[in-house]
Design a protein that fits this description.
- This protein starts with a strand and ends with a helix.
- α3 (about 85-95) packs across α4.
- The chain has one domain: Maf protein.
- It has about 180 residues and is α/β, with parallel strands linked by helices.
- It is built from 7 helices and 7 strands; from the N terminus they run βαβαββαββααβαα.
């Protein structure tokens, strides 16, 4: 298989690629991740993944670039990464007892060939107590996570009632779809 470059500094994406037994290098894509004004939230991740792939294209040298971006949508509003503890508590309070969507956009590129797609997973949170939310935020510090949580951590175990879709997508990369797409590159 061709050399693979993961255009991400996400430890969860790195972990998923390793668990899929893929050999890859990491080249961090330094791009402005500001959401384009007026762009519907479900289109933002794929747009940003394309930007990330383009940003490291000169480092690729016939490698396959895999770039991704994940957003959490609640009522079509993007809930980004929390800026501090109070913001994380506020985000989780909004998610409590509700369904939200996790959308990951992926862009895979080799030379002039590009395949981009998005995967959406519905996540249903049980009603969470303020004590549970505060415990999670203070112990797990989810400040680098879209939606202020990680499904594979304590909050996912006790707080998520069910999901409709790809579990690994919620972690940050729909790895099954990525591997399937790699076979077509």
């Amino acid at each position: 298989m061709d050399r693979i470059i993961l255009a991400s500094q996400s430890p969860r994406r790195k972990q998923l690629m390793e668990l899929a037994e893929l050999q890859f290098d990491i080249v961090i894509a330094d791009v402005d991740e500001t959401n384009p004004p007026g762009m519907p939230g479900h289109l933002v991740p794929e747009h940003l993944a394309r930007k990330k792939a383009a940003a490291i294209e000169q480092h690729a040298h016939e490698a396959i670039i895999i770039a991704a971006d994940t957003v959490v949508l609640l009522d079509d509003e993007i809930l980004g990464k929390p800026s501090d503890e109070a913001h994380a508590i506020g985000i989780l309070t909004k998610l409590s007892g509700r369904m939200h969507q996790v959308v990951t956009g992926v862009c895979m590129q080799k030379g002039n060939h590009q395949k981009c797609f998005s995967v959406t997973t519905e996540v249903y949170f049980r009603p969470l107590t303020s004590e549970q939310i505060k415990h999670y935020v203070s112990h797990y510090k989810p400040f680098d996570k879209a939606g202020a949580y990680a499904i594979q951590e304590w909050i996912g175990m006790i707080g998520i009632e069910k999901i409709n879709g790809d579990y690994y997508n919620v972690m940050g990369l729909p790895i099954g779809e990525v591997v399937k797409s790699l076979l077509l590159m």
